[in-house]
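To the structural biology subgroup,

Please find below the input and predicted structure for Pyrroline-5-carboxylate reductase catalytic N-terminal domain-containing protein, which we are adding to the shared reference set this quarter. The sequence is reproduced verbatim from the submission form. If anyone notices a discrepancy with their own records, reply to this email rather than editing the shared folder directly, so we keep one authoritative version.
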Amino acid sequence: MSYAIIGLGKIGTAIASAFAGQDIEVAVAGRRPLEAIAAQIGPSLVPQRIEDAVKADVVILAVPFAAHRDIGRAAEDWQGKIVVDATNAFGVPPEALDGLPSSAVVANAFPGAKVVKAFNHLAAATLAQGPKTPGGGRRVVFVSSDDDAASASVAALVDQLGFAPIELGKIGEGGLLVQARGNTWAQLIFQDLARFD
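Predicted structure (tokenized):
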């Protein structure tokens, strides 16, 4: 399976560092040149143009929420791909989202893709600390999707990166616990939890 991260801001860099820590190859792309930052993070990062990165099987959106539509237009066909939505729509009025969860709005920009919400609930500085917590547990990453197979696939990736995945179910059900609504953060956002195996 091939992976790409679109956006190497704070969240994207934290996720890319987790890939580098496990020596998993991942394409990285953004609006600015990323060669220098990718080289700093690790050799398993492969800088690409956005148009090439979106050809990956799993595309992680680590861009501001408002930019998701631009990324959606970067591929002719999203059929069968998994799009991991790591965005947060904090400050976006619910009426601007037609009352839908933000990930459901993201899904509309990626027709045919299986959208999975993940990597968005931790502050970037916390996520950048990596999968291990000071107490020796594995840092929890919540996963939510309307497609059970896609959710399981992303949960397996989260586990491979060293984090502890917890699946919350459908985006409009358990997934609401990790989605901002207007100026309100959901209950599980910013919760730095650990699992001890």
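Summary notes: The radius of gyration is 15 Å. The chain has seven helices and nine strands.

Regards,
Lab coordination
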